[in-house]
Amino acid sequence: MPGKPLTKAQLISVLSEKSGMTKIDVNKFLDTLHKTAVTETKKAGQFTLPGFGKLVKSHRKARMGRNPQTGEQIKIGAKTVVKFRVAKVCKDAIVPPKK
Fold first, then answer.
1. For 44-77, how does the pLDDT look when each residue is reduced to its tens digit (9 = 90+)?
2. What's the CA gap between 52 and 45, in Å, rounded?
3. For 65, phi and psi rounded to 5 degrees?
4. What is the pTM of this model?
5. Burial of 12 by CB count in 10 Å (0-12 exposed, 13-18 middle, 19+ buried)?
């Protein structure tokens, strides 16, 4: 069973120790990275974080769905969604491919 994920404060501490940067500088960097990722994904439709993956803005078509409580069919409208596509390098490092 996996452990708990790192909180933002824990992540900042780890990055600060490993990089030699202050916690304040690491926090500013993460905030800037977040703002840049959001801005670029809105504007260009995608944002690549080398080695990790890519944020991609995607359009989902309208479709028919089913209400789970009553079972009746309902129309689900078209909408824009954001997906994260994990880079192959990152995926292979976490879950090695079967041989």
1. 999 999 999 999 999 999 999 999 999 999 999 9
2. 17
3. -130, -175
4. 0.78
5. buried
User: What class is the 45-99 domain?
Assistant: few secondary structures
Region at 22 (left for phi over 0; alpha for psi -120 to 50; beta for the rest): beta
Distance CA 43, CA 93 (A): 31
By CB neighbour count within 10 A (0-12 exposed, 13-18 middle, 19+ buried), where does 63 fall? Answer: exposed
Strand 73-76 with 79-86, pairing: unpaired
How long, in residues, is the chain?
A: 99
8 A C-beta contact, residue 55 and residue 46: yes
Q: Which two tokens stand for residue 98?
A: 């079967």
CATH 4.10.520.10 intervals, the chain: 45-99
10 Å CB burial of residue 19 (0-12, 13-18, 19+) is exposed
